[in-house]
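#onboarding

Welcome to the new folks! Below is a worked example of what a typical request in this channel looks like: someone posts a single protein sequence, and someone else replies with the predicted structure as tokens. Don't worry about understanding the tokens yet, we'll cover that in week two.

Example request:
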Amino acid sequence: MKFTAQDIATIIDGTVDGDKNTIIKNVSKIDDSAPETLAFLANTNYTHHIYTTQASVVLVKNDFTPDKPLQCTLIRVKDPYTAIATLLNAYAEMQPQKVGIENPSYMAKSATIGDDIYLGAFAYIGENVTIGNNVKIYPNTYIGDNTVIGDNCIIYAGVKVYPQSHIGQNCIIHAGAVLGSDGFGFAPTKDGSYKKIAQIGNVKLEDNVEIGANTTIDCATMGSTVIKQGVKLDNLVQIAHNVVIGENTVIASQSGVAGSTKVGSNCIFAGQVGVAGHLKIGNHTTLAAQAGIMSDVDENQTLFGTPAMDVKQAFRIEAVKRKLPDLRRDLNSLSKKIKSLDLDL
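Example response:
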């Protein structure tokens, strides 16, 4: 597809600084670009690339002032990062959309489907499933009995949705994700073995949730494991039984939340965060990478380390750790000096 700089500016509410008729055929990174592409400058660490970039057009902030002559046309916007996101979404919406039911696939006679759906080959739709309008279910996907899927959802190849699951509107579930697998529930017995506890609950995703590839969300023992509106889970995340994840919380890859923990809204979990079970994590909490959470966390906290602690305190401790060899040497030296004094204390 081909656009002019002015076409792009109109879509993202920007102002062209340069040739409005400059042609754009693709997008590129500012430090790895080509002619007739659009790049963006959002991070000041990359500012020097704008003077050498091959991109024909670059998105910049409204207040950007170049120090040298530029070869590219600029589109000035309030926030380049948001603008490029808007533009890429608009481009994605222009692409041809899949519709129709491919064969072979299976759909139970009791299932109900909406308008304009896409059902890929080898997909399985169980008994009493309800699927809304404009839903796309890609090949090799399993949708268990009595599942409800809202309008405008995208379920990519190889997803497994266990029976009784509820998926809201505008949700995206990426390839290989599993919703509703058994929670890790086993009761110890007198002979040292473990007896499985039946997991009879389900999983509920509210609207506008996105689940990453190969992420697993376990069903509740009883009741529901709940992923609330606007939550974004990265690839390879584990959410255990009866967990509740609050609105607009984001959790990065390889993080895990143990059973019955309640996570507040607008939280940020970086990669490889581990949260123990039966805890409460307050709203607006930020957990740095590899943080280990073993107790409740109040609202508006930023924690780091294992066990996690206030990030400023954690950094002070880390600074001292780096000095331990020197401190040990000084302590040994001081000890020898004291002994050499031969004081009668």
